[in-house]
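Most newcomers find our protein records easier to grasp once they have seen one. To make this concrete, we reproduce a full record directly below:

…
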Amino acid sequence: AMEDYTMCIKLKPDLAKSYAYRGNIYGLHGKPELALEDYNKAIGIDSTYFDAYVNRAITFSMRKQYDNAFKDYDKALSIEPGNVNMLVNRSYAFIETKQYDKAVSDCEKILAINPNHEQANLYMGICNFNTGKIEESIGDFSKCLEANPSNPSAHLNLSLCYKSKKEYARALEHAMKSVALGNKVEESYISELKKLAQSKTK
């Protein structure tokens, strides 16, 4: 596929899609610098190319270049206002940069469209937990699990919520569910919860 798009570029160097698709392949092959070069070329040809902004933003986020990522998320949303996937991606980037108020704003926009959105409820819960709103975060993570009972991140975050409330048995229950669903949880955390749960029953 890489060779095909390179050939297309040679034949039609002004076709933005060829650069964007080749950029996607570079990204999949762990070559973000080359991916960014192709996204830049695609956007240079077509400044309204939504997918190119999206994938460039994701690439910037993966490289922790969040200022550039936010510019591209904003541009993508100016092209397709209210695009749920973009709001999800941008809210995650806001969480990564601890801009919880902005992440909450994006999540609220998503939940206004779909109150049962799995990722939006998860991210809302993370924001509420990190700003000390434990009860609200429990509700958010529970809604996430209503949408997908097998979400390991929601179970782990619920475990952290219940641990903060000193409800160690429930914290352990959700931590073990997270592990069973494939999440890598520190053994020291599990051991700590077991000890705390046992001591509370004595």
